[in-house]
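Students often ask why we bother encoding 3D structure as a string. The short answer is that it lets us treat folding as translation between two languages. Here is a chain of 619 residues written in the first language.
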Amino acid sequence: YKVFEELGGGNRPVLDDTGKNLIVRRVLEKEKKKLDYFGSSIEKTGFVSELKSVISELLQYGITPQQLGEIGENVKEKQQLSAKLKDIRLVYKEFMAFLSTNYITSEEILDVLCGLVEKSKLIAGSEIIFDGFTGFTPIQYKLMRLLLVYSKGIKISVTIDKKERPTGHEGWNNLFFMSKEMMNRLIAICEEEGINVDDTVCVDRDINYRYEGAKDLAYLERNLFRYKGGVYTGTPENIRIYEGSNPKEELQYIVSEILQLTRKEGFRYRDIAVVTADLETYGKVAANMMKQNDIPAFLDYKRSVASNPYVEMLFSVLEIVEKGYPYDTMFRYLRTGLTGISRHDIDILENYCLAVGIRGSRAWHEPWKKKMKRSTYQPELETLNALREQIMAPFLNLEAVLKDKEANVRAYVTAVYEFVTALHSAEQIKALSECEPAGNEYEQLYAKVLELFDRIVELLGEENVSLKEFNRIVAAGFEEMKVGLLPPTSDCVMIGDIERTRLDDIKVLFIVGVNDGIVPKSDNRGGIISQLEREELAKNHMELAPTARERVFIQRFYLYLAVTKPSKKLYLTYARVGSDGSAKRPSYFIHMIEGLFPGLKAELITGEQVDETLVTPES
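And here it is in the second language, the structure alphabet:
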């Protein structure tokens, strides 16, 4: 972006994942009759996001629709793969045609930058430092080649054991394969371009400065996944393994230990982190437990908006008009709590509708005259009709626009916006945000919904689509929408994902849920292109994201990076029984740690470890 400021070229708006989903959905609707393989799949939940991810991957790895077509010709004997590539190429080509003059994807930004590197005085006068990278995609290597040629100089930090041969090619089973691959490819680029490579500087000491006073952690860093056959001869004092009966017990122990560390041992909350490979099970429960015990914590997790009441309300409204006021959808809409109707009144309405059989558009548009049979309680028809009119008032204009066959997407969105305005949604969201613990999430969501409406109008405003198709477009937009929270304070416990959460200067790390199938995470993702098909494409020199087998080794490297973060204490915990009641086994990683440290055995979490005087029972 600094180069764009200097030379221009970055003036086309960047399309985010939500925008990509909208366009992919529109392309699928337009071209569904031409889709031989995926034609029957386009209405399946998650299919649009899956196809969008494939297109993003193709863009990221610099594969054009033309190249995809050529590869499709090469794999004609693989009929299923060939049919998939034909459909993907069709959608990809139409997707790119849609963007050609107005937008650019985030993956294409580097391509634009590549065209400007040669002219940039900023780059010519700069020494560029890359830190924390474990590898690059083909388009990133293309940029690196240009930066190596035209910049003043480049320095790259790499995580690798000093005893490794950087030029070796042992394969993915080597812990530092990604680092070595990156070094090899960059050195090859330098040789091709005639660029001098300075001597490699190895930053190393007998004891890493972070582990002074923690010899067992230093030994772990130097020997984990190295298969040297040695073991730690002392007693490990800074590594602990605990076994709980279930995830809740694991977290109770961790909360108790955090209170001990901060109140009795002088640690700050910001010195402590809790990470897991299963945030769905552990994340929210951990955050709630810490809140109950007045521990400031930040859950580094972006939530899907699909289950949010506001999004549920919007989905229900569109479905009500599309499907003609079905009973279940109508009351799903009313029970979101955002309609201005009290729960008591909704109960009365529902009892009446069930008793007299109120269903369908006509029943909701006409006055109600029937009385409930065989009921001791007879609500006033006047009261019921007043509630019906209050509910139907905002629907009248919305329904007129959504059923107008001449109306375009802009008119649809305007009508939906006027509907939510009539419900005073902004005020209701504000009230919810003040009384809910995750209030910031509600405020973010309201703003994001307005952004989605703007994006739909911007991309598809003048298009004429059916109501059913419009509803699918809106659903595709919400499919990619996620909201996250901001840390409440700089001094808080970080709760995050073992791979994605960035941890700096951590002294104490808890890794929870170290169970088989979680660490390493089971990779059952089939995706649109299967693992066998990816291997077939690799034979045809089509480089894509790592396969399932390769991701296992990548997870191992990220696990190594995680356990070597803390400078003072490392805790590993696992459960005997999962949150669903199924029996669980400890991960192989637990046995590996016990093998490296013969004096270390898993301890059962008991009342002695969980200080009941410190931990507040869950409400």
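Translate back mentally: Residues 294 and 611 are 15 Å apart (CA to CA). Keep this in mind for the problem set.
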